[in-house]
Amino acid sequence: MIDKISTLGGYIHEYQKSVENPEAFWSRIAESFFWRKKWDKVLDWNFSEPRINWFVNGKMNITENIFERHLFTRGNQPAIIWEPNDPKDENRVLTYSELFEEVQKFANVLLELGIKKGDRIAIYMPMIPELAIAMLGCARIGAIHSIVFAGFSSNSLADRIKDAEAKLVITSDGGYRGNKTIPIKDIVDEAVATCPTIEKVIVVQRTNTKIAFNDKIDLWWHECMANAEEVNQAELMDAEDNLFILYTSGSTDKPKGIVHTCGGYMVYSAYTFKNVFQYSDGDIYFCSADIGWITGHSYIVYGPLLNGATTMMFEGIPTYPDAGRYWDIVNKYEVAQFYTAPTAIRSLMSMGQEYVENKDLSSLKVLGTVGEPINEEAWHWYHDHVGKNRCPIVDTWWQTETGGISISPIAGIIPTKPGFATLPQPGIQPIIVDGEGKELSGKSVEGNLCIKYPWPGMLRTIWGDHERFKKTYFSTFDNLYFSGDGVKRDEDGYYRILGRVDDVINVSGHRMGTAEVENAINEHPLVNESAVVGFPHDIKGQGIYAFVVCGELSTGGAEGIKTSIRKGVTKIIGPIAKPDKILLVKGLPKTRSGKIMRRILRKIAQGDFDNFGDISTLLDTSVVEEIINGALEDV
Ligand code: PRX
User: Fold this and answer.
1) Cα(509)–Cα(491) distance, integer angstroms
2) Is the pTM of this model over 0.95?
3) Ligand 1 binding pocket mutation candidate from 273, 374, 506 (most atoms within 8 A of CB)
4) CB 312, CB 333: distance < 8 Å
């Protein structure tokens, strides 16, 4: 088992060791896992190719480290506690033995269907236990899972299936979210119709709604499982074999398939989980993310289960049946660690104290946030009203690419400061550089956040496009991993994340590429062109502001066109990409070389109509005036 860091001195000592001799450090951590063959070399790397190999020639399977390693001691302990959307429905508790049996059976189902190590499997499911069983079943046989958040549209799902050339989709008939029923299978059907690589679709029954069942490719999960063998021998995986792909938005149009591998991701997700949350045996841990995002991968499924923890899975939403739902769950299960996004905190905060005030939250020991900067007001509300001034808040900075928490307090050990992710986790060597790549050393500096040395949980490539991997992360600054975030290091040496410095907007903690949204808007037949920027939003952190140039207006006029643009974006990407504000304009501010000056649009979106800086390169300055007038009228 991984030893926890238990004092500030211990953290400083571990951190120093991890920097002085990273290989010895990670080798010691990795030794607490079960390897079928030990590695020959801890690390082989360079950031210029880039090539990153951890635990070279080590052989293992991540599911053996979840199940076989824990069965003797934890067979009857709950592994997953599932809380349904409707609190009146029955919950499900899967012990380590029960979960193991399901995973083995599902692994055998996959093998029966001819799925082999290395094949890609798309998973598009609501938050039900079968989602975790499906992903672990894939990992058991060495198939690469690619989970697509079930809020994405059929187009987005199809793009991801095509990019990964997935053979199989695992899904459900429908899903519940609050008082809505989502037609999950219909969305999958629409996607699969355009994806020739898909051979079969496995469907879990959840809502029992009527679906179009195509006998040629559709299979019922329960029927497959009823006949499945109960025992499955895990596939032998190399530490550097792929474990999963997870798509994320970048500054160009096409989402990137971030690739994580077995050995390094295992060691890193497990190590950070145990330390950051200070998990102790018997604690009930609850992360409210969706497994469709990296937070759910690392801190609902892999990190907790690798530590033999009890992890909650919640199907519903924070406001159903009312805005006290999270606190009811904390109370019902006596949750010790609770991990959520600032956007959820802000939204619950805006609904009033009464939902939290009368709940017994005395079981809580640690609170966490992730995904976006947390403003001080929300931090204090979380600290005072949820944590009752007794629980440390871990503001965890990391990314789909980093695989696990990278800069964060260790709960109760590294003193916190509102708005600061504080200090790097052992093994993470942050460096701040200016626009030219020059290191800004010392304290009280601000610049681009890079990492200068590999860590086991980092991405290894972009699926099918190693060149793009190199260009996106290792070419902006020589020999450094560039995160895309701006950061400030204060006089205490603490890190405060300032947000993205590229064309990515962080909406409710979810990454949205502006180019992606623009392309979706431009699909509208009346739209000539568009430019999308972020603007400060009280609940979402950042909202999406679209400046749109239309040839002519349709019969519905301006409002009609805005509605149809929003519908179009929802259809093409999903509801999370729907612009909060749309301003119809005659032209966009462009330079003589045709580049859109987003800087001006960002200012206007923020409601700042002066201080545009140097606009002498603009082709037509009257465009700016026209946009400002439109924006003023729109307020
Ligand atoms: O901008 C940073 C922001 O979220 C981005 C990563 O998004 P994603 O890959 O979707 O992963 C989110 C969950 C790990 C980062 O580049 N971000 C993440 N955590 C924080 C944050 N910004 C400020 N503070 C954080 N704690």
Assistant:
1) 27
2) yes
3) 506
4) yes
